[in-house]
């Protein structure tokens, strides 16, 4: 067995059933020529290398540069490439949706845990929980109230259930009172949860 | 891509009903939207069919994938939020029929 995860998991504690199963599946995929160890390694490295700070940089750029924002909303892959963020061709399409005074978007995957990993890294545990997945579609305003998002009065709340080949990232509203701030300062206001839509960006 | 694909059948704004079904194989149409009627928000692309792809198949012909807009008050009769609230969900063409 030469699977990547075997190498990653050599330590003193016994592996869990789930971990063992994933190692076995990975080894089979490699053995049957469906995936190479190198492809697995590259994908794991990419996901581990991405954090919400990457998404925050993108949001801050969109806040200060209207042209970039338009390109990001139209074709995220090429817009992100401008910032040196590569989205590999084999990963799902990333669609960015903008929160405005009229619409507040919030993202869920009711079927599993689809998440814009190529930009935010691994999802938080609560995002994968049955409770979030069930309540996000049925009572989004209740969920947002618990997390802290406050959509503008009269705004439509729009839940995006990413059931298929697309992943969604929320571009939160730019907070008031941030007019003079630099892109770097703005990025510090962009929390992970605001890019899922369960909170707003932080106040300065 | 030049692999076989189903013809795109629904324009933006078309009224569509989501089919009801629970096939024995993998599928990606959640039960809570089945039987409901919505409108096509956008065509997302034409993707390999996950229902055969998940079982060693080639996913062909590729299926158009649409973002479907549903009204929350239609999905949940006791919906507590604003009547204007919506849910957008991605559905493959073979799960849709004209409404």
What does this structure look like?
The complex is a heterodimer of chains A (204) and B (99). Chain A has twelve helices and four strands, in the order H-H-H-H-H-H-E-E-H-H-H-H-E-E-H-H. With 204 residues, chain A is mostly helical. Chain A has two domains: 11-48, no CATH class; 51-196, Alpha-Beta Complex (Nitrile Hydratase, Chain A), CATH 3.90.330.10. In chain A, the strands form two sheets. Chain A has a two-stranded parallel ribbon with strand order 1-4. A two-stranded parallel ribbon of chain A has the order 2-3. The longest helix of chain A is centred in the N-terminal third of the chain and has 15 residues, at 17-31. The N and C termini of chain A lie far apart (52 Å). The model of chain A has no long low-confidence stretch (mean pLDDT 92). Chain B has one domain: Roll (SH3 type barrels), CATH 2.30.30. Chain B has helices at 50-53, 72-75; strands at residues 15-18, 37-47, 63-71, 86-92, 96-98. Chain B has a five-stranded antiparallel β-sheet. Chain B has two helices and five strands. The termini of chain B are far apart. Helices cover 8% and strands 34% of the residues of chain B. Chain B has 99 residues and is mostly beta strands. Strand 3 of chain A pairs parallel with strand 4 (86-92) of chain B.
